[in-house]
């Protein structure tokens, strides 16, 4: 009795110390990883001339002028760019959710000729570098008269071109028991019924993951938006931010940092709101 | 960057896969592509720069549209790095903007692709060249055609922070007679006197500006007039030895510091942050450097000019205006270019943002309105102009890669990863394959 309680206490204290150490280590690591972000936040409140001459976190004086300057720079309100980005992101999310899940259903549940080959081909498109496809895409959209509209950024998503999400959902749908499909079929459901009544409601975690990553990737996607949008009024957030940054002349870093912080806010908020679905999705996929 | 033929061929394959949805989309968007229904002439214009240039150029457009109510100019702009990716794509896509801001290194490439219009037929009837700097104008010519009109000129020079030099207590040699050795020794002494708090100078090997002046002082150039790589093994060896000497004598900071400051652009350079006493820049960058450092910076001639058979410094076109070969309204676009370079009001707005105006009468006229730093650049350029040799011809296609090649090799030399002879060979091989 006595000996066992002693060993229990000892083992508990032994297990606690490493945990405290591990946490301290993790917190330290977290701070190191966060430092660039904190530095940018600090920089957004410094005078531009102090940012690189006093590269620490602290400066003699702080200012909120950068936010006002950045918001109104280039004669267009930065809010305009945020709205533009939101339009593109909303369209992309809707497109990806609808098209990728439908394509995934086909790959996971239907039998058709050359299914394996089509699947491999689709996955192969992930490996196509953007520089190879951007010129033909540009010619295509230019002939359609879609330049300077958001169509080139949204319409392709309706064709399930984000192979990564199709793959993600195929894996998820495969893990759903087929018994449910069969039960629905006996009750008189066709493919559409099964898809909309059984598969989609059960795939919420995968859909949430798709929505979150589409948001982040589209929000940060710079190159497509740079090439397809040339009217400054149509610029999205990343493109607008880059109009400030010119290596050959002086860059107003203070406003750039300030607007970078502003443009991070929606991503951060969306991630926070959607994070629990993400975790739940991982938990259920692991559950099989 | 993008090689048009390959991209287009692959596109063909992809197009077929997309044929069905495409046909649908085409049917849906049959109304697209009908711009200019208001009876006005629509021109598109593109440039790179920072926010000040965006603002002034938009003002220029507004000013022009006011006096030409039948013309609408739609601008598009971004920073330097992204500019060339976008331009390459739009040109390959057959959507070249009517008016293009061009750079020395890329004119040849775009002219070869057939993207640029020959402006000869507009000179002097539309674009009046009577007051334009003759020797600078020659740089826009290629095979007897005029593909580009310079916006203005700059010179490569040494920017010095006299306060830091004085604090170090090191006398600055006369820049009319100083040699490269004088320069390196002075810089090393400054580092020594300040115990490394201030470095005498910054590394000059990442950028091709200094190398070009050095080559020209040795009777060579980055490229021969017919577009072949123009540097000899001997001159390149001397150049890289000079870089190594600057590093070893601590005239410039350690390789890792150099690498870090170089990737930070102009705002993070040692001069801008008052950690270096001198550095090589273009004269038009003096104002950005002065604003960053809050010091009264000055310009000095390149070292080694008086020892050389021919001076290496030249007036380089800061940028060019080019017109699209496929423009529907080339005449109107040329009229706008004429406004940009010859109109006194336009010059007053632009000042020296695109280099000191190519129009020599306007160049003198605006000098009084310039900021103190820009005025110094203008005075300096005027002072050295009589000493200079004519500018080189347009470099060949692929010349835009020289800077990348050079900075990669320079980094390896600085970090002692390759020997000087190997670096020389690498430079020669890589420039050859980039431009052939």
From TrEMBL, chain B:
The superkingdom listed in its UniProt entry is: Bacteria
Name of this protein: Extracellular solute-binding protein
Alphabetized, the UniProt keywords read: Signal
Indicate yes or no for the key word Signal.
yes
**To which species is this protein native?**
Actinoallomurus oryzae
Indicate yes or no for the key word Signal.
Answer: yes
Leader peptide range in chain numbering: 1-32
InterPro entries this protein is in? Bact_solute-bd_prot1 (IPR050490), SBP (IPR006059)
Task: Output the Pfam families linked to this UniProt entry.
Answer: SBP_bac_8
């Amino acid at each position: 009795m006595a000996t066992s309680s002693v060993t229990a206490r000892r083992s508990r204290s032994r297990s606690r110390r490493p945990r405290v150490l591990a946490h301290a280590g993790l917190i330290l690591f977290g701070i190191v990883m966060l430092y660039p972000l904190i530095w940018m936040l600090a920089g957004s409140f410094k005078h531009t001339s102090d940012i690189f001459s006093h590269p620490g976190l602290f400066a003699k004086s702080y200012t909120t002028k950068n936010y006002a300057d950045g918001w109104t720079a280039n004669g267009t309100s930065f809010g305009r760019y945020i709205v533009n980005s939101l339009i593109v992101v909303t369209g992309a999310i809707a497109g990806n959710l609808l098209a990728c899940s439908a394509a995934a259903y086909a790959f996971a549940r239907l039998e058709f000729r050359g299914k394996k080959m089509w699947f491999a081909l689709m996955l192969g498109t992930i490996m196509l570098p953007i520089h190879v496809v951007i010129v033909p895409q540009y010619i295509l959209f230019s002939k359609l008269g879609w330049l300077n509209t958001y169509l080139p950024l949204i319409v392709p998503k309706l064709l399930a071109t984000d192979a990564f999400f199709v793959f993600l959902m195929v894996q998820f749908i495969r893990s759903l028991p087929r018994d449910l499909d069969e039960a629905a079929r006996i009750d008189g459901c066709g493919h559409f019924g099964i898809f909309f009544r059984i598969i989609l409601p059960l795939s919420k975690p995968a859909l949430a993951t798709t929505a979150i990553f589409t948001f982040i990737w589209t929000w940060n996607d710079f190159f497509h938006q740079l090439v397809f949008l040339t009217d400054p009024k149509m610029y999205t957030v990343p493109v607008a931010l880059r109009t400030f940054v010119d290596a050959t002349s002086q860059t107003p870093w203070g406003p750039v940092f300030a607007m970078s912080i502003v443009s991070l806010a929606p991503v951060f908020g969306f991630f926070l709101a959607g994070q629990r679905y993400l975790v739940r999705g991982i938990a259920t996929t692991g559950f099989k | 960057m993008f090689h048009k033929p390959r991209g287009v061929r692959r596109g063909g394959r992809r197009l077929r896969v997309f044929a069905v949805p495409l046909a649908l989309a085409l049917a849906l968007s049959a109304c697209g592509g009908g711009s200019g229904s208001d009876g006005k002439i629509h021109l598109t214009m593109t440039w790179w720069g920072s926010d000040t240039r965006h603002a002034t150029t938009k003002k220029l457009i507004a000013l022009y549209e006011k006096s030409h109510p039948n013309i609408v100019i739609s601008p598009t702009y971004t920073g330097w790095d992204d500019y060339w990716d976008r331009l390459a794509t739009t040109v390959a896509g057959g959507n070249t903007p009517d008016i293009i801001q061009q750079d020395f290194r890329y004119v040849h490439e775009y002219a070869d692709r057939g993207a640029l219009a020959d402006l000869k037929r507009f000179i002097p009837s539309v674009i009046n060249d009577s007051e334009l700097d003759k020797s600078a104008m020659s740089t826009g010519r290629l095979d007897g055609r005029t593909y580009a009109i310079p916006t203005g000129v700059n010179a490569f020079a040494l920017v010095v922070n006299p306060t830091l030099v004085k604090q170090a207590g090191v006398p600055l040699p006369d820049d009319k007679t100083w040699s490269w050795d004088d320069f390196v020794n002075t810089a090393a002494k400054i580092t020594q006197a300040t115990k490394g708090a201030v470095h005498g100078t910054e590394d000059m090997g990442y950028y091709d500006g200094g190398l070009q002046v050095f080559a020209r002082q040795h009777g060579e150039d980055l490229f021969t007039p017919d577009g072949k790589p123009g540097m000899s093994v001997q001159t390149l060896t001397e150049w890289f030895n000079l870089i190594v000497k600057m590093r070893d004598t601590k005239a410039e900071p350690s390789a890792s510091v150099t690498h870090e400051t170089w990737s930070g652009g102009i705002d993070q350079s040692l001069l801008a942050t008052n950690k270096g006493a001198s550095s090589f820049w273009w004269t038009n960058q003096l104002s950005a450097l002065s604003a960053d450092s809050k010091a009264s910076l000055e310009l000095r001639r390149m070292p080694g000019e008086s020892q050389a058979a021919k001076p290496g410094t030249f007036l380089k076109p800061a940028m060019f205006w080019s017109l699209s070969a496929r423009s529907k309204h080339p005449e109107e676009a040329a009229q706008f270019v004429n406004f940009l370079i010859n109109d006194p009001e336009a010059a007053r707005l632009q000042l020296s943002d695109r280099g000191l105006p190519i129009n020599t009468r306007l160049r003198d006229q605006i000098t009084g309105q310039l900021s103190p730093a820009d005025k110094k650049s203008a005075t300096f350029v005027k002072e050295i102009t009589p000493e200079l040799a004519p500018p080189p011809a347009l470099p060949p296609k692929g010349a835009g890669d020289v800077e990348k090649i050079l900075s990669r090799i320079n980094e390896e030399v600085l970090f002692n990863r390759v020997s000087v002879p190997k670096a020389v060979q690498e430079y020669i091989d890589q420039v050859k394959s980039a431009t052939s």
